[in-house]
Amino acid sequence: MERIAQSLEKKIMTAEEAAKYIKTGNVIAVSGFTQVGYPKKVTTALVESRHAKDLTICVGAAVGDEIDGALVRAGLVKRRFGHQTNKDLRNAINEGKVAYSDIHISHLPTNMNQQAGLKVNVALVEACAVTEDGIYLGMSSGTADAAVRNADIVIVEVNETVPMEVGGMHDIFEVGLPPHAKIIPIEKPDDRIGTPYIPCPPEKIKAIVLSDVEDVAQKFKPVTEATEKIADNIVKFLKGEIAAGRLPENPGPLQSGVGSVGNAVLKGLEKSGFKGLSMYTEVMQDAALGLIDKGVFKFVSTSSVALTPESKKRFYENIDFYKDKIIIRPNEQSNHPEVIRRLGVIALNTPLELDIYGNVNSTHVMGTKMMNGLGGSGDFARNARISIFATESIAKGGLISSIVPFCSHIDQTEHDVAVIVTEQGIADLRWKTPKERAELIIENCAHPDYKPMLRKYYEDALKVTAGMQTPHDLTKALSWHQRFLETGTMKEN
Fold first, then answer.
1. What is the spatial distance between Cα 377 and Cα 202, in angstroms, rounded to a whole number?
2. What is the arithmetic mean of pLDDT over 412-420?
3. What CATH code would you report for 6-211?
4. Coil, strand, or helix at residue 305?
5. Catalytic residue among 282, 332, 392, 423
6. Given this model, what pLDDT does residue 79 score?
7. Which helix (H) or strand (E) holds 268?
8. CATH number for region 225-487
9. Can you tell me the distance from the alpha carbon of 292 to that of 275, in angstroms, rounded to the nearest whole number?
């Protein structure tokens, strides 16, 4: 297979020429997921020309600075949909300069397919090849298929640094819309149900741009003593479930959110004794690649392969070994609630904070400042066989307790949280009443510096609460956050 079909070569042009297809006020749906497989050259040309502004950007999850940073700094972005991590975009959102709509990852492609509230004008996608049949993506899938399907026109950046073999690792399947939506026939993570390319009529492709710009380098924080303890506690919990007969010998498939805690937990599986596990997740990180090497994972279904430069080099050099052990799926399949439920996924996600009753804040610092966005945590938490939220019990060197009386913002309610794990211990919340949850979380998961404060809040709440089902002192429920904003710490003087 050639990178570009001969019949499409006439559409090859410069990034500057391709950028002219983007107009002021356009809705642009871009490829990419966790800063992997996103277009770079056309947006760079757009920043230089600045001929189009008031743009709406739709993307499944965070992309690189060429989109979320440069376009924002140039003042060209009016609205952004989907998960993000760029500091400049985050600041613009929190300053009210960019309108941001956070959204479940599984809902974004559905909304595009239904054209609910907006119509995609331009799909801007990075690929490793383009044929008359369609577009072969790179190291991520995300919402690129929905973008191509719904856009008026398509612009493709063909990245020649991505091996052609990556294109064959994708599995693209169009679900369709109710009442004629198709059942997604995935019964195990390694099932292939679609095509390795996004079907796209050649006439819809208006421009092809050659690129040699690599994705931003992935970075993961090293495993710490605290995150290692979290990993040990999760392995302990899983083995306890196996011993009790509630999970099979090889539990899973597993889902792990992006970040240092998730990466540490995966590394913790190396010494767990587990073999032949599988993943059904959104993002495959470095640790998962190592677990494939060691036989801990036999298969990974993901929407993005997000690796550090060293691991990506190993992946490329041994792609023949990895390509039949990894499938890269669109978000519409990787995060589909019914598939998650059917497969019995064990979900592991990391909150910003959680409260004594098990509610989770995944997005807002101190209740008002957007961090990164909801991502896919809600898709998995609501539908997983077991929904685990794991975090260090303190943040900012102990100035903040990750466990508070009442979350300052709630993304996942107590009903979607089965187990909480910190380096302090495990709180199994299944079948527990609110008061039982509070006692477990405070006793097992809170940091010693904050445990007495949490106990006092709960005991005082029992005395003054208006109702005994979920006791709260509403005059003090958010006092810890207010104290931090005023003094720089949640600790009492």
1. 36
2. 97
3. 3.40.1080.10
4. strand
5. 282
6. 98
7. helix 260-268
8. 3.40.1080.10
9. 10
